[in-house]
Amino acid sequence: MAKLETSYEIWLKEEGIPVVQGYGVEDVTGLSLKAWPRTGGKGTYIDLKGMEGFTGMYVGEILPGGALNPENHLYEELIYILKGVGATEIWSAGDEQRKMHFEWQQGSLFAIPLNTRHRMINGSKEPVFFLAVTSAPLMIDLLHNMRFVMDSDYKFADRFDAEHNYFVPRNSRRESDGFVNWETNFIADARAALVDPSEAKGFGVKITSFDMGGSTLVGHIAEWPVGRYHKAHFHQGGAILLILRSQGYTLMWPPEAGLRPYRNGNGAKIVRVNWREGSVLSPPSGWFHQHFNIGKEPARQLAFRYSGRSGKYLLGCWRAINKEGVRTSTREGGTLIEYPDEDPQMRRDFEAAIKQAGVPMEMPEFEYVDW
Predict the structure, then answer these.
(1) Range list of H helices, the chain
(2) Contact between 301 and 244 (Cβ < 8 Å)
(3) What angle (nearest 5°) sits at the alpha carbon of residue 231, between those of residues 228 and 234?
(4) Which of 191, 252, 303, 326 matches a 20 to 30 Å C-alpha distance to 237?
(5) Is residue 44 within a helix (H) or strand (E), and if so which, with residue range?
């Protein structure tokens, strides 16, 4: 019996560019991109196991001095500039006289407001590379009518109405459910943006969530020091992690392997993804995952996800699996493994890895619970 494909999977094939799969990609800037007639540039789709039809992702290229074709779509999109400088034109259907223009550089992050017309322009003699994360799988599978998805004239004025300061960086931050949430439609350089302390996620960890473009597709920037690692946790699938700085590895394992997979004899079920600047990975739904920095500088990652407990516009299916939240211990019904409850082999392997890398051990001491 032939495998039944989703509308999104069928569309990916029709796009005529490569689709990369797996648990992660070591360097998205090193992928082989192909000419993409629909956009007028080059591209490759990335469809990792943990994305699970919640999120879509692709890497695009704009040739030197060139521009992409104008487009619009009924799915949300966040864009991160991997390399290059340029600008984006944006306007609503039937409102081209109020076309807006904003510039970006390497490290810039911004949202494309829902169904706005937009065109990306390369302002240099070098190619531009960018990573885009979208809600296309959800919308295309629900509507399964590409003409409607890509050719609607509806104007979502509540999200974008050509406000003159729409893409001016803002510093509107508020605390919600233990996270600091930053509402802005443009981040000039996510690699250098201020991040706020979030010790509940690990020793020295800093995390700032962000809302952009009135979307349910949001994210956060996380950073943690040299010689340290995060606490393990799990959440709904669809989250995508892009590494902005340092190098290390992430361990991912399914729930049936338990809180202490090595001790339970389930070490073979652990998936290890090595990362460095430009890597992407996506943990599947319900899989514990834990991030280890073995580089010589603070690690920083950019996470794309749906809004759950702390965002402005909540997506119920994202919130459903998260129970009491990723900041709440498994002892209290949450999804976070406290350091004393983790598998001791995690720390032993980390100590060996940073020793080999010539990095000092900076993890504070703690006693493991014997259970």
Answers:
(1) 7-15, 136-143, 146-150, 316-320, 344-357
(2) yes
(3) 140
(4) 191
(5) strand 41-48
- pLDDT tens string 48-86: 999 999 999 999 999 999 999 999 999 999 999 999 999
DSSP state of 170: -
Cβ atoms of residues 71 and 134 within 8 Å:
no
Containing 280, the helix (H) or strand (E) segment is strand 280-281
Q: How far apart are the first and last CA of the chain?
A: 47
Query: How far apart are the C-alpha atoms of 319 and 43, rounded to whole Å?
Result: 32
Instruction: Note whether 106 and 82 are within 8 A (CB).
Output: yes
Q: Which amino acid is at 227?
A: G
- Count of H helices and E strands in the chain? 5, 22
Q: From the CB of residue 365, how many other CB atoms can be counted at a distance below 10 Å?
A: 5
Residues shown for the chain: 371
Task: Find tokens 């807006």 and name the residue.
Answer: 100
- 3-state SS string for 140-201: HHHHCCHHHHHCCCCCCCCCCCCCCCCCCCCCEEEEECCEEEEECCEECCCCCCCCCECHHH
Q: How far apart are CA 250 and CA 289, in angstroms?
A: 7
pTM comes to 0.96
**Cα–Cα–Cα angle for 118, 121, 122, nearest 5°?**
155
> For 209-249, how does the pLDDT look when each residue is reduced to its tens digit (9 = 90+)?
999 999 999 999 999 999 999 999 999 999 999 999 999 99
Given a contact cutoff of 8 angstroms between Cβ atoms, the answer to whether 251 and 259 are in contact is no
The Cβ of residue 346 has, within 10 Å, a number of other Cβ atoms equal to 20
The answer to whether the CB of 87 falls within 8 A of the CB of 103 is: yes
The amino acid at 370: D
